[in-house]
Design goal:
InterPro entries: SEC_C_motif. The protein is mainly α. Helix content is 43%, strand content 0%.
Length: 274
């Protein structure tokens, strides 16, 4: 199909009503030959300016691409950096990457290890490996690649290394605990993402409680006095939890054309949308 034909198919699909059910995009006639064009639409930021349903074309394009994977994987990896500012993409692109299955494991790991790529884009790829690990047939390979990335990442990639550990925790990959201990002993791990070693062992099911007080994971994030006036006297950052590998939402996502939550009266896409 040509680009405009695909746009004409995806536009009427409009704003998704259920983020957990993506529908059957192949019923619209998409094939592997359409994968490169779908990636073009995914990275096309001109749709953000739309006041109509065209604004959702990139989202439907990546959902359609997920059903064609591994077709389009190479092209999608090249544009991951563009998607790091999109709230929906940060949630859903790891699922799209995971749809590549076995054929996607080594390319994702190679992407994670390449320092030339954007940090957030690499973290999306780490989450893609984590999503692959949820598939029983892929778990062993995905865990092995996550552990390989954790050990092989170059110095200065503490956040990405922390994310790989967080994904191993999510997968309950207790078999990697010795390798994780070695990485912690060497340093260069962002504890605010995955916790200290005791938290890791708790997450892996290897201990039932801490032996020491939980560290203040986020102390370095705020200068002295920054939180004054924002916290009650009884708030205690010493009990602050490390970040979790996936975002758990308590409220629905804000649509691009919805009123901005900040109360400005403007549409979200014209105001606080990243």
């Amino acid at each position: 199909m040509d680009k405009q034909t695909i746009i004409n198919i995806l536009t009427p699909l409009g704003e998704p009503q259920d983020s957990r059910r993506w529908g059957n995009y192949l019923a619209h006639g998409f094939s592997a030959d359409d994968a490169p064009t779908l990636v073009e639409l995914i990275e096309d930021d001109s749709f953000v300016e739309s006041d109509g349903d065209e604004i959702w074309v990139p989202l439907h394009a990546w959902r359609a691409l997920s059903q064609l994977m591994p077709a389009g994987l190479e092209e999608l990896l090249k544009v991951l950096v563009v998607l790091t500012t999109d709230d929906w993409a940060m949630d859903e692109i790891p699922i799209v990457l995971a749809a590549a299955g076995k054929a996607g494991i080594e390319p994702l790991a190679a992407f994670v290890l390449d320092d030339e790529h954007d940090e957030l884009a690499r973290m999306i790829a780490v989450e893609g490996l984590g999503e692959m690990g949820k598939q029983p047939a892929l778990r062993e390979r995905a865990v092995a690649q996550l552990a390989h990335c954790m050990k092989t990442l170059s110095e200065g990639n503490a956040a990405i290394r922390g994310m790989t550990i967080a994904q191993l925790i999510s997968l309950k990959a207790a078999e990697t605990v010795d390798a994780i201990r070695e990485v912690y002993a060497a340093g260069d791990v962002d504890w605010s993402i995955c916790g200290d070693m005791e938290d890791v062992e708790l997450g892996l099911g290897l201990r039932s409680q801490r032996d020491t007080p939980r560290p203040n994971y986020h102390a370095d994030m705020f200068p002295d006095g920054f939180l004054d006036g924002f916290m009650d006297d009884d708030d205690d950052l010493e009990d602050d939890e490390p970040a979790i590998p996936q975002v758990i939402r308590t409220e629905p996502k804000v649509g691009r054309n919805d009123p901005c939550p900040c109360g400005s009266g403007k549409k979200y896409k014209k105001c606080c949308m990243p």
